[in-house]
Automatic annotation (TrEMBL):
Record-given protein name: Alpha-1,4 glucan phosphorylase
Similarity remark: Belongs to the glycogen phosphorylase family.
InterPro entries named among the record's database cross-references: Glyco_trans_35, Pyridoxal_P_attach_site
EC annotation from Swiss-Prot or TrEMBL: 2.4.1.1
CDD domains named in the record: GT35_Glycogen_Phosphorylase
Lineage summary: Eukaryota, Viridiplantae, Streptophyta, Embryophyta, Tracheophyta
Region (Disordered): 560-614
Comp. bias (Low complexity): 560-579
GO CC terms: chloroplast
Enzyme class: transferase
Catalysed reaction equations from the record: [(1->4)-alpha-D-glucosyl](n) + phosphate = [(1->4)-alpha-D-glucosyl](n-1) + alpha-D-glucose 1-phosphate
Source species, domain of life: Eukaryota
Length: 985
């Protein structure tokens, strides 16, 4: 099955907007695929060119670009010249020796591994700088449209092997280092992972840059240079613990500091109206953002693009020398500390006001410094005559999630306040320039910021956001009209950028006047009803009087013997019959009492236009992204549909043309070619060339060899070699010894309740319990040996996620030391999961778990990486799983679980107390609570799976609902694994 999986996955990444395979070599091999993200690469609209063609002469005087796609390698090669002058191992060894001596980071006495790594990296960087300079000299001459990808994360991993692989110099560098007494792999292991990201958001960003460079697109990435990253994860008896990353302690040979490229960034202060009639943001706290550049090489192309990272500081004069000499050292260093801490940590905890301020400072620093740089580059390329109308034709800004949302008000501020454009001109330019990638359907993950906090930190931006919001309100009013004020008010409440904020005076007046008109019309109607009712009552009385029955026609009761009694009975009968007639007549009058309705109307309050003082005023960043940009994309077919149907449904109805799908992609260079050389060699041998690295449609050629026993044998050998690497990794990191003959079952990703690592570990516990209930022989017959591997970080303040990590490690400590079980089941949590660990685990994987609650995972990209390496997936129909399953075939995907369209109903069923848990689910919880995994209480963890609703309860992610189908699906996995031949073919 694993071989046919890879063959079927001939184009796993990227997938086209329809979800079908486009071209997996990169995020977009066709210009149409990237058009959504970055707009047109050039300005010519007269004709469409095939991807990779460019109608320009490569001369400095030709400033105009006429392109509609990436710069082709052939054309780019005319202008981009570079790389090392010679590529033989002797000259490379000389370059390494040169850097060891003349670019020293270590003492000169010894040439040990750390020194060898730095010198090697610096020699590679020489080639990258040559190509980098040539690339941007070429694009400057062309004046090409440039794409700028802004992201708070870039999860790069190690750079050495990737760089020399893309330069096609891996073998040459291996020989050069051998001449110097070192092994390339040992040298490469000295490199720490760059601590610039955490999860899929950051890894996706790095894959994009690799692909953009490989496809010769003019593009840059912008991020922050975090000194300590997110954190380094350690696992102790108490579970996850966090310590600061130290990746920069020995320097970073890949970065080039640009001391001449720095920009001021301002916080706080106030806004004043100048004598020129313009708004000016003055005073406050000032810092400086300094550029650090990291070259990003394309694969077998001279194109080398750039990741520009910002580091923050203040000028030396801001150091308070007087305070320092007076002994107040903290005060002396305060300004510098405030500036530097902006780039200390990725995602600092935001439970405190100080944490929130720091996060917002980070986001604004990224946006402000990057836009200043982008604008400066545009102005420089424009020469003496800057035409701001051309800005969107030369610049495309892609916001990776909502973190860079402040690009929108910041670009408006620069254009209006500093460049002198009108509001209307600036708004058109901004909307045409900016686009937004959504990465989540979780409401709590759609960023909101306190308006009060933002007003203090960024007062001018709040004014701009308020005006954008006011204009958007007018758009909503014009779209939905004034006929139904209830619907209009609902749309305003849901779609506004500012939440729980005052309405503009014009809207208040509209609602007030409409309400008064409604009241007046209602009063007129009630007045008419009163008149009509009076007439009805008069007619009623007249009708009742006419229909009284005469006394003589009445039957006299036998007991009425005297005249008085006769008269009394007759009178009573007349009254009763008249009353009955009146009652019948009143039944014909159906109108309600107008007097009561008028009282209700007077008592009714008009709609409230004031914010709720009990709730905070907030800025909805995702709404601002949708309003302020020209395009919004989801990152998988199912996710994009949820974005349109649920997350931003009202916006989709308003602007359907803005919403598109771009299923995520990953680079096959790093994720097959470099991290899995054993499999890569097999693919190259059997397909006849290395063309598959750039055109992975070529992988389909493996299908015709699927029954070939030689290929099957080579495939098994490659998989075992990769598994042996992981055996060593696990022993080194955890001390556990695992068998390479067991199935390697892997779930590695950020720890989160919706990703359902809890479902996985409860399934393992159930498996363990059943093993314990059997004899040794029964166990061997019933179960396939497994090594269940977990990895991922729980955010430092995410208590429930950290409980899950603790539970996994507790289960592992019990199972792994149980002599009855032995190698039949092992549970391993690999600490400090990162790109380098992934590069070992993914090639060794045989089963990978992508089991999020359906409809909650935007895409996932590790599922693509596992599939690309011939691994079978078990998962739900969520994110990119849907499209992967279509490509690899249903037989190569173990499917279980509720579907996305069922989730809301299942949660409602649970909330109403109608859910009946499967006995096996209750059994496994009882087993956990029995104390078999130690003295730790798991009540709070398991309590989240119980009850019907409530914060932290009610099993919001439907673990209990999917549990029985999950364990049944795992039985099918065992059955398939036993038949190795079938699983290969």
């Amino acid at each position: 099955m694993s071989l046919s999986t890879l063959a079927s996955l001939s184009a796993t990444t990227p997938l086209s907007r329809s979800g079908r395979v486009a071209r997996p070599s990169d995020l977009g091999s066709r210009s149409a695929h990237l058009k959504f993200f970055f707009g047109r690469i050039g300005v010519s609209r007269s004709r469409r060119l095939s991807p990779g063609t460019l109608s320009v002469k490569c001369v400095a005087s030709d400033r105009e670009v006429k392109s509609d796609g990436p710069v082709s390698d052939d054309v780019a090669g005319e202008g981009i010249s570079g790389a090392l002058p010679t590529h033989d191992s002797q000259s490379i060894a000389s370059s390494i020796k040169y850097h060891a001596e003349f670019t020293p980071s270590f003492s000169p006495e010894r040439f040990e591994l750390p020194k060898a790594y730095v010198a090697t990296a610096e020699s590679v960087r020489d080639a990258l700088i040559i190509n980098w300079n040539a690339t941007y000299d070429y694009y400057d001459k062309m004046n090409a449209k440039q794409a700028y990808y802004l992201s708070m994360e870039f999860l790069q991993g190690r750079a050495l092997l990737n760089a020399i692989g893309n330069l096609d110099l891996t073998g040459t560098y291996a020989d050069a280092l051998k001449r110097l007494g070192h092994n390339l792999e040992s040298v490469a292991r000295q490199e720490p992972d760059a601590a610039l990201g955490n999860g899929g958001l950051g890894r996706l960003a790095s894959c994009f840059l690799d692909s953009l460079a490989t496809l010769n697109y003019p593009a840059w990435g912008y991020g922050l240079r975090y000194k300590h990253g997110l954190f380094r994860q350690t696992i102790t008896k108490d579970g996850q613990e966090e310590v600061a990353e130290s990746w920069l302690e020995m320097g970073n040979p890949w970065e080039i500091v640009r001391h001449d490229i720095s920009y001021p960034v301002k916080f706080y202060g106030k806004v004043v109206l100048g004598s020129d009639g313009k708004k000016h943001w003055i005073g406050g706290e000032n810092i400086v953002a300094v550029a650090y550049d990291v070259p990003i090489p394309g694969y077998k192309t001279k194109s080398t693009i750039n990741l520009r990272l910002w580091s923050t500081k203040v000028p030396a004069q801001d150091f308070d020398l007087h305070a320092f000499n007076s002994g107040d050292h903290a005060k002396a260093y305060e300004a510098q500390a405030n500036a530097e801490k902006i780039c200390y940590i990725l995602y600092p905890g935001d439970d405190s006001v100080e944490g929130k301020i720091l996060r917002l400072k980070q986001q604004y620093t990224l946006c402000s410094a990057s836009l200043q740089d982008i604008i400066a580059r545009f102005e420089r390329r424009s020469g003496s005559s800057v035409n701001w109308e051309e800005f969107p034709n030369k610049v495309a800004v892609q916001m990776n999630d909502t973190h860079p949302t402040l690009c929108i008000p910041e670009l408006m501020r620069v254009l209006v306040d500093l460049k002198g454009l009108s509001w209307e001109e600036a708004w058109k330019i901004t909307q045409r320039t900016v686009a937004y990638t959504n990465h989540t359907v979780l409401p709590e993950a759609l960023e909101k910021w306190s308006l009060e906090l933002m007003e203090k930190l960024l007062p001018r931006h709040v004014e701009i956001i308020e005006k954008i919001d006011e204009e958007f309100i007018q758009k909503i009013v014009s779209e939905y009209g004034e006929a139904d004020l209830e619907i209009l008010q609902q749309k305003l409440t849901e779609m506004r950028i500012l939440d729980n904020f005052d309405y503009p005076a014009s809207v208040v007046e509209l609602f007030k006047s409409k309400y008064e008109a409604i009241v007046k019309a209602k009063q007129e109607e009630l007045k008419k009803q009163k008149e009509e009712l009076k007439k009805q009552k008069a007619l009623l009385k007249e009708k009742a009087a006419k229909q009284k029955v005469p006394v003589k026609s009445m039957e006299i009761p036998a007991e009425a013997t005297d005249a008085a009694k006769v008269a009394e009975t007759a009178e009573a009968t007349e009254t009763v019959e008249a009353s009955e007639v009146a009652e019948d007549a009143e039944k014909e009058i159906s109108e309600p009492d107008p007097d009561e309705e008028e009282e209700d109307l007077v008592a009714e309050e008009p709609p409230s236009f004031k914010p709720d003082p009990k709730l905070p005023k907030m800025v909805r960043m995702a709404n601002l992204c949708v309003v302020g940009g020209h395009a919004v994309n989801g990152v998988a077919e199912i996710h994009s549909e949820i974005v349109k149907d649920e997350v931003f449904n009202d916006f989709y109805k308003l602007w359907p043309e803005k919403f598109q799908n771009k299923t995520n992609g990953v680079t096959p260079r790093r994720w097959i070619r470099f991290c899995n050389p054993y499999l890569s060699d097999i693919i190259t041998k059997w397909t006849g060339s290395e063309d598959w690295v750039l055109n992975t449609e070529k992988l389909a050629e493996l299908r015709k060899f699927s029954d070939n026993e030689d290929l099957q044998t080579e495939w098994k050998i490659a998989k075992r070699k990769n598994k042996m690497k992981v055996v060593s990794l696990i022993q080194e990191r955890t001390g556990y010894v695992v068998s390479p003959d067991a199935m390697f079952d892997i779930q590695v990703k950020r720890i989160h309740e919706y990703k359902r690592q809890l479902l996985n570990i409860l399934g393992i516990v159930y498996r363990y319990k059943k093993m314990k209930e059997m004899t040794a022989e029964e166990r061997k017959t019933a179960f396939v040996p497994r090594v269940c591997i977990f990895g991922g970080k729980a955010f430092a303040t995410y208590v429930q996620a950290k409980r899950i990590v603790k539970f996994i490690t507790d289960v592992g400590a019990t199972v792994n030391h149980d002599p009855d079980i032995g190698d039949l089941l092992k549970v391993v949590f690999v600490p400090d999961y990162n790109v380098s660990v992934a590069e070992l685990l993914i090639p060794a994987s045989e089963l990978s778990q992508h089991i999020s609650t359906a409809g909650m995972e935007a895409s996932g990209t590790s599922n693509m990486k596992f599939s690309m390496n011939g691994c079978i997936l078990i998962g739900t129909l969520d994110g990119a799983n849907v499209e992967i399953r279509e490509e690899v075939g249903e037989d190569n995907f173990f499917l279980f679980g509720a579907r996305a369209h069922e989730i809301a109903g299942l949660r409602k069923e649970r909330a109403e107390g109608k859910f009946v848990p499967d006995p096996r689910f209750e059994e496994v919880k009882k087993f956990v609570r029995s104390g078999v995994f130690g003295k730790q209480s798991y009540d709070e963890l398991l309590g989240s799976l119980e009850g019907n609703e409530g914060y932290g309860r009610g099993d919001y992610f439907l673990v209990g609902k999917d549990f029985p189908e999950y364990i049944e699906c795992q039985e099918k996995v065992d059955e398939a694994y036993r038949d190795q031949k079938a699983s290969i073919t």
